[in-house]
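Tokens as discussed.
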């Protein structure tokens, strides 16, 4: 089997998805599992230890038929019976039409070479671009599209007329695991053991702008305001860990986190820890497990908190946040932020979540095993060329 990530990797999420796909496929008894790698891949420490049998270099990205056709990868594709493409949130044009079209053309290309192809782990916004809709309509019906939440499945079906298959976010299969004991995890454990309320804040340079497709927003002001308000929460003392999500410089996470660190008032310095690098998914989940709350503007940071059983406040700019929280019966924990960040609203929601943390943890404990089973079943159905169409 060949696994095709949705583009150059460097984020916690894409790395976790690739890692868990490899792990699940190998656990199902598939011996030869290869992964496509791209120029521009960053943050190999994020990928985990579920190593593929081999890695194949992509001739280009975005996909270019002329360059791929005569490549070593094209020759290798003909040898793979199955090709699984991790769509993630890249099939609705929500990040860029170019990436969506490239991913779908890659799927067509692999099928033309004789492989059985499936798109898995996809989100689909209720407001897809017309370019993405047309590209999906052109995609052969024999290539199934597996969505990770019911909102996405309904949206895909309504917009394109395609059959939708309901799976779940495969990163729910990540198991929390400790890493370097001297890093942010140790800081969180130490303060939690001292009775402090620890909040993990994961910012996103695309949240807080009116155009998430435009240039990343690296103004630290709104996040510093959120952080300062969190530190002033009543009842007990609060500590805040700030963690980036993506190692790729162009994405802007590292620059934003660095700017937040530079803008912190001196009085906050002892109460805040800023991680210079993203935490691998399993380590982020373990870190969140010792925290009271995660405030996340990154989808997979929210997922890792749910994996850990930790309450969340999700700062939403795409429907995927609402989709995963609805699956957990926690839809009231998302804050719509497409028009900008409102620190007062966000921290009020955080305070409310902390006040009912026990009920939230109970809802997470009930939902996550179901989502894990759905994610595993998605992979099993893809391998068996089965699965029932979404009927909701």
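Sequence:
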């Amino acid at each position: 089997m060949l696994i095709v990530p949705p583009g150059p990797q460097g984020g916690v999420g894409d790395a976790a998805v690739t890692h868990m796909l490899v792990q699940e496929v190998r656990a199902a008894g598939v011996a030869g599992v290869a992964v496509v790698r791209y120029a521009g891949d960053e943050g190999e420490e994020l990928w985990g230890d579920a190593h593929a049998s081999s890695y194949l270099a992509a001739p280009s990205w975005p996909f270019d038929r002329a360059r791929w056709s005569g490549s070593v990868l094209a020759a290798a594709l003909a040898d793979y019976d199955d090709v699984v493409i991790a769509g993630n949130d890249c099939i609705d044009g929500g990040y860029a039409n170019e990436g969506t079209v490239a991913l779908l053309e890659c799927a067509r290309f692999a099928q033309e070479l004789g492989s059985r192809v499936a798109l898995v782990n996809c989100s689909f916004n209720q407001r897809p671009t017309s370019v993405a809709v047309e590209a999906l309509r052109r995609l052969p019906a024999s290539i199934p599209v597996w969505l990770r939440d019911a909102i996405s499945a309904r949206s895909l079906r309504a917009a394109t007329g395609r059959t939708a298959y309901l799976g779940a976010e495969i990163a729910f299969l990540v198991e929390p695991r400790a890493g370097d004991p001297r890093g942010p995890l140790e800081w969180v454990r130490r303060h939690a053991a001292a009775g402090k309320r620890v909040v993990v804040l994961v910012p996103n340079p695309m949240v807080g702008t009116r155009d998430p497709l435009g240039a990343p927003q690296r103004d630290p002001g709104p996040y510093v305001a959120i952080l300062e308000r969190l530190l002033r929460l009543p009842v007990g003392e609060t500590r805040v860990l700030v963690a980036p999500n993506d190692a790729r410089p162009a994405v802007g996470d590292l620059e934003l986190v660095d700017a937040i660190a530079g803008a912190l008032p001196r009085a906050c310095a002892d109460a805040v820890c800023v991680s210079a690098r993203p935490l691998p998914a399993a380590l982020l989940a373990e870190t969140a497990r010792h925290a009271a709350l995660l405030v996340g503007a990154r989808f997979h940071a929210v997922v890792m908190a749910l994996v850990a059983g930790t309450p969340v406040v999700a700062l939403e700019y795409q429907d995927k946040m609402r989709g995963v929280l609805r699956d957990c019966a926690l839809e009231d924990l998302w804050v719509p932020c497409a028009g900008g960040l409102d620190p007062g609203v966000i921290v009020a929601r955080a305070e409310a979540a902390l006040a009912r943390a026990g009920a939230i943890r109970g809802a997470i404990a009930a939902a996550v095993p179901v989502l894990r089973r759905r994610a595993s079943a998605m992979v099993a159905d893809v391998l068996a060329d089965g699965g029932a169409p979404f009927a909701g």
